[in-house]
Model the fold of this input.
Amino acid sequence: MEYFPEEAKVTYRSKYSKKEKEFSSLEWMAALCSHIPDRGEQTLRYYGYYSNVIRGKLKKDCR
Done:
């Protein structure tokens, strides 16, 4: 991620993509804030290998 204050632009490239995306600073903040859950909203924290079910099975197998 690079920020250019003179142009008020942000250039972003994810680790999965070779393409760069360019945002205005306000667009970047809107995209970033969209990932913040609303107050009281439940979020998913553990899934797949880290889920409680899998962790329980692994713990049982290790004993």
About this structure: The helical segments are 25-33, 52-62. Residues 38 and 44 are 13 Å apart (CA to CA). Strands lie at 2-4, 9-12, 21-24. The chain has a mean pLDDT of 84.
